[in-house]
Design goal:
single chain, mainly beta, five-stranded antiparallel β-sheet, two-stranded antiparallel ribbon, 7 strands, about 0% helix
Length: about 80
């Protein structure tokens, strides 16, 4: 019997509005579209639980999804859905 892994929201990176690179680009230079969905994630450093909104963004014609929110004042955590 095969057991399949499920995708989960996993921590990808942390940054500020001036230096957050996600999907190979400065993510704050693109328009984020709120999906209305929220997901539970953990702070990678302190383990605190958060419920962050999920956004879609189009980069060079390709749609990407990610969750993001402030981990501390002006410092954002980014999470992507992966195995």
């Amino acid at each position: 019997m095969k057991i399949y892994k499920r995708k989960t929201w996993q921590y990808e990176t942390t940054g500020t509005e001036k230096n957050s690179v996600l999907f190979g680009v400065y993510i704050f230079e693109y328009k984020w579209r709120d999906t209305g969905e929220r997901v539970k994630v953990k702070d990678p450093l302190y383990g605190q639980d958060y419920a962050f909104p999920v956004y879609n963004v189009t980069i060079e014609g390709i749609d990407y999804s990610f969750a993001s929110g402030e981990l501390s004042n002006g410092v954002y955590g980014f999470y992507v859905l992966k195995y």
